[in-house]
Amino acid sequence: MAVKLTTQQRELDFIDKINRLGDFKDHFVEWYDWGPVNVAGIDCLAVVMERGHDNCRELLPLLQRDKFLRLRCIDHVAKAVRALHQHNFIHGDLKLENVVDFGLYKLIDFDHAIEMGRTPPPHCTKEYCPPELGQYLRQNGAPVVTSATFDIWCLGVLVLKLFIKDGILAEFSDVENKDILDIISDPGFLFNDSIHQLRN
Prior knowledge:
Helices cover 38% and strands 16% of the residues. It is built from seven helices and seven strands. The protein is α+β, with helices and mostly antiparallel strands. It has a single domain, classed as Transferase(Phosphotransferase) domain 1 (Transferase(Phosphotransferase), domain 1, Orthogonal Bundle), CATH 1.10.510. A three-stranded antiparallel sheet has the order 1-3-2, covered by helices on one side. GO terms for molecular function: ATP binding; protein serine/threonine kinase activity. Residues 1-200 form the Protein kinase domain.
């Protein structure tokens, strides 16, 4: 077992809702208990959950060497994303670090999970950020509402990272983290350089 301490009520709200909708232990980390706690005089929220092994960022060298494991990982993640979307939720922060080996590859870290059609929290992991969210966050673009396309974009980036050397996206290899959203927000942005690496 593992315990996560957080201040994000959104994650506990998601856990409450999703647990009432069905059994997702093949797709998401299994939660045993959750609620408010006081730790050393500080009020916060706790989630008691199953403990996994390594996340896919840590497993990347193995996943890149072993085609079967890599395809198995993609299959499990795609099915987990489908399960979320079938129940009108997006993960909101899909990335290698949030996919963990529990014997099955499962999603963790639902701090940014939200129902589709809502305004997303002002957060993203920049390399995975969907362009429309990047435009909203970085360039004061039009307000956005969450949709399945957010996770699908992130899933595409995750899959690309599983195939390219060391998971390093060519588009961002010499770019400061703070500038990534400007690149992604460009209307013509594509991962052409990274995809080109796969062909060589």
